[in-house]
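Lab manual, section 2.4: Encoding a predicted structure.

Procedure: take the sequence of the chain (113 residues), apply the prediction step described in section 2.3, and record the output as structure tokens. A sample record is shown.
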Amino acid sequence: MIAWAIGLLPSTLGVPLAMPPGMVLVVAGATALLASIPVLQWLVIRQRTHSKRWIPVNMGAWAIAILWTFAPSPIVDDSTEIAVLLGIYTVAGLLMAATVAALTARSARTLFS
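Recorded output:
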């Protein structure tokens, strides 16, 4: 919910994103968005040794994985059928999940084994 709210903030505030204040808002918002999930997860695992590593590892994994949501853009337009759209973005979502899992697996194994 927090990440979703942060993602909607620029359009809700109506800040032009091409202007310097908008760019600052996007960078700050993206950082807060990427930190929201791992920081809340860290609150649960903080008693484990080396748990603070989880935050930057998870943020980095999501920063890379989120690129999958942009991958379909060149082949999607207004004429794309709903079934095709659902298929394309389902695959993108699965690739995003697999990327996060692969990039956080070593840290997770260290924390929970």
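Check your result against the sample. Residues 54 and 108 are 8 Å apart (CA to CA).
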